[in-house]
Amino acid sequence: AARNGEDGVRQYAPAMGQVFLRRFQLVTQFRQALDSGQVEVHYQPKVSLPERQVVGAEALVRWSHPEYGRLDPDEFIPVVEATGLVDALTSFVMECALVKVRKWLDRGLRMSVAVNLSVRNLADESFPDRVAEALGRHDIPPELLTFELTESSVMEDPERSMPVLRRLHALGVVLAVDDFGTGYSSLAYLRQLPVDEVKIDKSFVLGMGTDLGDMAVVRSIVELGHSLELVVVAEGVEDDAARDQLVAMGCDIAQGYLISRPLSEDRLEAWLQARTV
Ligand code: C2E
Ligand code: CA
Ligand code: CA
Ligand code: CA
C-alpha cells in the first residue's frame, strides 16, 4: 500500500510541475508575445434583431504560441490577469479596436467594437483617462466603444470599481454587463450600476432549446433589462430556433455562431463585404 502511495506521488508531482512551468512560461512570455505579433485580436459580429443589421463586433484576443500553438483565452487570460500585464493586454486590444472603428468610419460605416475588461482595469483609477486619450487620438465618438465587464469583476472591490465605472460612463462609452445570470445578478444591484447594456450568458441561450428553465431565465433577463431601459444582447446564438425565440421575446441584439464565429480582421472584412452585396 505504501508503495502504491509512493507511485501515486511520483506520477502526480511531474504533472503538477508541468502545469506550474507552463503557467510561469506564459507569464514571462506574454509581454514579448504582445510586442512580436503573436497576439491578435479577432472580431465576432453582433447583429440587431429582428432585422439582422450588423451593429458592431466583440474583440476577442488570440495567442499563437510558438511552442503550444493557438492558445485559448480561457487558458492565458487568468494567468495574465494575475499579473500587471493585463493593463498592457487591455491597452493593446483597445488600440486595435479603435483603429478598426476608425477604418470603418473612414468608409462611412458606423459600427461599434466591444472590449472585455478585467477586474484590474476597474481598480485602476488612471484607466478612464487612458480611454479618453485613446478616443481623442483616433477621433472616435465614445458611443462606438463598448466595455464588457462581469458582475464578479465589479463586486470584487465595488468601492474602487464604482468610481472608475462612473467616469467611464461619463465619457459616453457604452458599458455592458457580461455573462449576466451567472454571478450575483440581483435586480437591486443591476439598478445601481451605471450600465447601458446587459449580455445574457451563453449557457442559458445554448440551453434554451432543451431546457425550459433556461428559457425562463432568458425571458426574464430580457424583461428585466427592458424594464431598466437597458439594451439586451444574447450571446451563444447557434441556431435559427434560438434566434426566433429571442426575436419573440424582444431581445435587441444577437451574437453567436449562427451569425458568425470570431474572425481575423481579413476574414471579418470579407464577411462584411459578402453581406452587403
Ligand atoms: P466572453 O467575453 O464571454 O466571450 C464570448 C465567448 O463565447 C468567446 O470565447 C466566443 O468565441 C464564444 N462564443 C461566441 N459565440 C458562441 C456560440 O455561438 N457558441 C459557443 N459555444 N461559444 C460562442 P473566447 O473567444 O474563447 O473567449 C473566452 C473568454 O476570454 C471571453 O469570454 C472573455 O471573458 C475572455 N477574453 C477574450 N478576449 C479578452 C480580452 O481581450 N480581454 C479580457 N480581459 N478577456 C478576454
Ligand atoms: Ca465578452
Ligand atoms: Ca460573455
Ligand atoms: Ca465568459
Automatic annotation (TrEMBL):
Residue ranges the record marks as coiled coil: none
Protein transport found in the keyword field: no
Keywords assigned: Membrane, Transmembrane, Transmembrane helix
Domain EAL: 23-276
Keyword Phosphoprotein attached: no
Annotated protein name in UniProt: EAL domain-containing protein
Taxonomic source organism: Saccharopolyspora taberi
